[in-house]
Amino acid sequence: MILINGQPDNRIPVTDRGLQYGDGLFETLAFRQGKLEYLAAHLQRMAKGCERLNISFSDKDKLEFELATLCAQTAEDSVIKIMLTRGSGGRGYKAPTDAEPLRIISSHPMPDYPQSCQQGITVRLCQHRLGINPGLAGIKHLNRLEQVLARSEWDDDNIREGLMLDVKDRLVEGTMSNLFLVHQGQLITPTLTENGISGIMRAAVIKSAAELAIPVKEKDLTLADLELADEVFLTNSLIGIWPVTELDGSDCYWEHGELTRHLQSELKTTER
Ligand SMILES: Cc1ncc(COP(=O)(O)O)c(C=O)c1O
User: Fold this and answer.
1) What superfamily in CATH does domain 115-269 come from?
2) Whole-structure pTM over 0.90, yes or no?
3) Ligand 1 residue neighbourhood (C-beta within 6 Å)
């Protein structure tokens, strides 16, 4: 089901700036057991993105109402996607000052990842590099060509995710996930001030770690840090935590270790 500005529809104007320029934001949420998980956090990130892109988020209440409508008609656990574009108009790239943002919300089947992903996945290292863009770092804007190109690099279902370096050789994240390393009892995750998406699940993991008195550090990471890690895992709103146990084409292997297990079970019990 799709709602566009609250109405069941599946068409948007070809003049929409989200289509023309990627001028907008999106969120991907898990709807499980009748609950939109981490809804407040997703809306907060969208609000931050709106601020950064100078898109009005004055229709937040309408969006919440529409989400409730959509969810009321969604019986099964599903993925709910929100897109908010600047709307239509303007001259070329120049955005109109009075644009009316377009809200698109849709429900989709949950991807049926094998249960084994919770015990460990194989990842690969992508060739495509992330650029540097502090102005867009952290937010979930609609321009995802870097991820599209990286994800087109492999077609092997046994490889569940690709890790991405940036043009400065820093290990930033997966194509659809955030990265954590465990090293000597400490949790380390890349700084996301120059690129990457500041994940909702990443924030939930950092919060859980703090509650469990596990030290967390944000810093620039390289492939050497990955090789030295005791445990590696990836996060996003749909997968939760996926331990990484193998880097394809290398002799790097990691355990589905104690700290990762601890965080996985902790997240299961926390309010989402
Ligand atoms: C590039 C990228 N990084 C990180 C994430 C994780 O974000 P979240 O935890 O909010 O789902 C995603 C999720 O789709 C992503 O596409």
Assistant:
1) D-amino Acid Aminotransferase, subunit A, domain 2 (3.20.10.10)
2) yes
3) 28, 147, 173, 176-178, 197, 199-202, 235-237
